[in-house]
Write a structure and sequence with these properties.
Elements: H1 3-7, H2 14-23, E1 43-44, E2 65-77, E3 100-105, E4 119-128, E5 132-139, E6 150-152, E7 158-165, E8 171-176, E9 180-190, E10 304-312, E11 316-323, E12 329-337, E13 347-355, E14 358-368, E15 374-383, E16 397-400, E17 417-422, E18 428-433, E19 438-442
Antiparallel strand pairs: 1-2, 2-9, 3-8, 4-7, 4-9, 5-6, 5-8, 10-15, 11-14, 12-15, 13-14, 16-17, 17-18, 18-19
């Protein structure tokens, strides 16, 4: 254990603490974590006999090996949120699965453990993903023992300290029966010591000797010559302003000055009150009756409104129509839909108008690209009087005004090209053209 821990514990012999202060080391690259220390045996003897690893230097061990304490350091942490601290490969993610074994090369960790380590003082923690029957840790290269290092039958976070011998290449093996994250910390290792013993601690510095006697004072020297005059100091600040003197007597009045120029003419006065209205004259004779104007066109007879509602499935395009019925004609109509509040042109109407093959039918062409159903409504104004349809000729004048175009209708892209033109009848048409659609407004 570190020397600071040794001072705070009830240790039987102060010589043991002195020994630890000499052989304690700090890892060269310990993980940047605030870890608590734990109690570890000051001495440990490795297992000898059939269970020992091949090549162990058991014959050179004359007794129990002492603990070389290090600052508590994290060797392994499989939790993904700690991967940013350098826990990866055999030291990090992922968690161990059911019945999985992993070899952990302790000497290759960032804790700076000596290659002479024969065993490790470890604190092992499990963060199980459910009930965990047991976890076992043992020297790498040996068969897994039929013992458990710790258990967590209720699936809780559990920790336990253990001394684990170093296996092949200084590695240890970890096994879990069910999925679990595993955390391994180290606060020391056990190793062989030279038979010649270790150097003792440096003794304290001796006391300072007494001060010598003060010698007699020397004779006073002669006064030196007067030094040169120093430079003139800076000018002092200006004094305060004195009080104002008394006012002098009034002088003799001067001669009258010349007359000034004439001032501007004043504003015109308010208009006077209007006079009384004169008497009304006699009415003139009635003029002759004007000619009767031409008779206006007959209105539509038996007009009625027919409509329907429905919904359009997502990513679906189709015609919807209203039939005015036999003996009736379409004289107008409308199509409407409802977008989602946050949608942008997720449903479009690509055609509104009569079916020219059937004058009693009004048609709407809906295109829904939103991926979800949208409500629609369409209707037609029907009449028993046949309307007159007029076909206009080709454009006679085309004017493109991209820099002075009015705001496009709702749903038309802001970068659509605006143009306007007049046909042979003099009717002005306005259009906005986009790469994938074309909408028009007639004025």
């Amino acid at each position: 254990m570190p020397l600071s821990r040794c001072r705070g514990r009830n240790v039987r012999s102060s010589a043991i603490c002195s020994l630890l202060s000499l052989i304690s080391v700090t890892p060269a690259a310990a993980q940047a974590l605030d870890l608590r220390d734990w109690t570890a045996p000051l001495y440990w003897s490795p297992v000898e006999g059939p269970s020992a690893l091949k090549g162990e230097r058991t014959s050179a061990i004359s007794g129990p090996m002492p603990l070389v304490a290090v600052t508590p350091c994290r060797v392994m942490d499989t939790r993904p949120e700690y991967a940013v601290l350098g826990f990866n490969g055999p030291f990090g993610v992922p968690a161990l699965g059911s019945g999985q074994q992993r070899d952990v090369p302790v000497l290759q960790s960032n804790c700076g453990i000596s290659s002479n380590a024969r065993g490790y003082s470890l604190n092992i923690t499990v963060v199980p993903l459910g009930p965990l029957q047991f976890l076992t840790v043992w020297p790498a290269g040996l068969a897994r023992p039929n013992v458990s290092t710790l258990n967590s039958f209720e699936g809780r976070v559990v920790a336990n300290a253990a001394v684990v011998p170093a296996g092949i290449n200084g590695s240890i093996s970890v096994y879990v029966t069910e999925p679990s994250h595993v955390i391994i910390d180290i606060n020391g290792y056990y190793t062989d010591l030279s038979m010649s013993g270790i150097s003792g601690a440096t003794g304290p510095t001796g006391p300072v000797g007494p001060a010598g006697l003060t010698g007699p004072a020397g004779a006073t020297g002669s006064i030196g010559p007067t030094g040169p005059t120093g430079p003139t100091g800076p000018t002092g600040p200006a004094g305060a302003t004195g009080p104002i003197g008394a006012t002098g007597a009034t002088g003799v009045a001067g001669a009258t000055g010349a007359t000034g120029a004439t001032g501007p003419i004043g504003a015109t006065g308010a208009t006077g009150v209007a006079g009384a209205t004169g008497a009304t004259g006699f009415p003139g004779p009635t003029g002759p009756t004007g000619a009767t104007g031409p008779q206006g066109p007959a209105g539509f007879a038996g007009a009625l409104w027919a409509y329907s509602t429905d919904s359009v499935d997502g990513d679906f395009t189709a015609w919807w129509s209203v039939d005015c019925g036999a003996g009736r004609y379409v004289i107008g109509g409308a199509c409407g839909h409802r977008d989602a509040n946050s949608a942008s042109r997720d449903i479009r109407i690509n055609y509104i108008g009569p079916n020219f093959s059937d004058v009693s039918e009004f048609r709407c062409f809906f295109e829904n690209t939103s991926g979800s159903s949208r409500a629609i409504r369409w209707g037609a104004l029907c009449s028993s009087t046949a309307p007159t349809y007029q076909t206009f000729g080709a454009p006679s004048e085309v004017i493109t005004l991209p820099s002075a175009s009015p705001a496009p209708p709702e749903g038309v892209p802001a970068d659509a090209i605006y143009s306007e033109w007049r046909n042979e009848a003099g009717i002005l048409f306005r259009t906005w053209s986009a790469p994938t659609r074309k909408e028009a407004a007639t004025k």
